[in-house]
Amino acid sequence: MSDFTDLNGAEHSFGESEAQREVRANDRQYVFHSWSAQDAINPLPIAKGEGVRFWDYDGTEYLDFSSQLVNLNLGHQHPGLVAAIQEQAGRLATIQPAMANDVRGELAKRIVEHSFEGARSVFFTNGGADANEYAVRMARHHTGRQKVLARYRSYHGSTATAITLTGEPRRWANGTLDAGVVHFQGPYLYRSAFYAETPEQETERALAHLEQTIQLEGPNTIAAIILETVTGTNGVLVPPPGYLPGVRALADKYGIVIIADEVMVGFGRTGEWFAYQGFDLRPDLVTFAKGVNSGYVPLGGVVISEEIHQTFAKTPFPGGLTYSGHPLACATGVATFDIFEEERILERVNDLGSRVVEPRLRELAAKHPSVGEFRGKGLFWSLELVVDPETREPLVPFNATGEAAAPMNAVVAACKAAGLWPFVHFNRLQIAPPLIISEEDLVAGLDIIDAALDVADGYVT
Ligand code: PLP
């Protein structure tokens, strides 16, 4: 007797702890994992996923409130994405990047058509970090300048320039791999670096700080300012009104390129195709990955303005990747656009975010003293947990290695025990379910978070 039949018709059985043990044993013996001390981890074996849920080999079910790494926007095993891979694999599984191909061209066209005014072309990469590497390289060649300004509390990926751009502890152990990177503070009213008390003050002071940074570094040495439109992993930091247009004005004043890193928030997460469209920002380069095809096949890229495109019209662009514009990946990207339109994904995200999530989080913030602040947009939210609402001391202080300590682990354990796979980073419990989630599942997940916050409240002094 089988427990489930997968999309290929193959039957699988759960309840075989032996199977689960074997997967675990091979993993522990042979797989080297990211960001981890290899002997300190015990990754959960996953057998199957469907929609907003996944299961281990023993049949334990999890409701995914993290969309894996905030990439699974259309959920597991979406039939439209699976069919796109199958159809493309049957026709042309791979082709090198210097050749033209229907799905590659179609996806680039759809992306440009949904992008900022003046967008011209798309360079495809394998993921988010290399998209940022290439965006920086384009900005440097375009301007003839070397420095790049990046914000603290950002994550831009883990390749050489991308990890140096990153403004949080994951950079520490890697040192400085790109000498041209300079960090500055962005707006974050709850922990304002500028002693601001209102969003207006925060915007004004953050922009004054950025202008000072530009002047002290030398405007004619700065190629680009890179920013996550809505800072993702480091707290779903939604920019205050006027901030991003203010960055645009400074970039125009000093001839600097703006790179919007939309790897985490692009493709519907905040309720627009791209998050910058909700904040009145006109970027010059936009990096994307994750949501472009929900990660079914690795894919990322850079959307390029006409002006920067023209820099490389007669002069060759010095860079490339064997798998740039991979047909299997592009086929799933094209299917993503179709599915977004057919399933009215953006409307759903805006409706569920404003009607279900925001009011519920407001209620949780009032009920639980451990919730210092909640913030977000669309289906991307963060609960910032504190041990003391007055001092705002984080529930987990940053420790030397940036690892989460006991209190947050207890909150995570409470979520998992109740069948919810949460997205947790430092002292924040973040909410990022697949965008196809039903209202019923969304409410069920928020109920589990409500109960887990009782555990967090136990640490409040
Ligand atoms: N930029 C942002 C904002 C991200 O959140 C991430 C990954 O989480 C990256 C870049 C790196 O993307 P990748 O892991 O695909 O290299």
Describe what you observe in this structure:
By secondary structure, the chain is an alpha/beta fold. Helices cover 37% and strands 17% of the residues. It has helices spanning 17-30, 67-70, 79-91, 102-113, 128-143, 160-165, 199-217, 243-254, 306-311, 327-342, 345-367, 406-417, 439-457, and strands spanning 4-5, 11-12, 48-50, 53-55, 61-64, 119-125, 147-151, 181-184, 222-228, 257-261, 285-288, 300-305, 371-377, 380-388, 393-394, 420-421, 423-425, 428-431. The protein has a 7-stranded mixed β-sheet, sandwiched between helices. Strands 13, 14, 15, 17 and 18 form a 5-stranded antiparallel β-sheet that branches. The protein has a 4-stranded mixed β-sheet with strand order 3-4-5-16. Strand 3 (48-50) and strand 4 (53-55) form a beta hairpin. The radius of gyration is 22 Å and the shape is globular. The chain binds pyridoxal-5'-phosphate. The site of pyridoxal-5'-phosphate has 16 residues, from helix 5. Pyridoxal-5'-phosphate (PLP) binds next to helix 5.
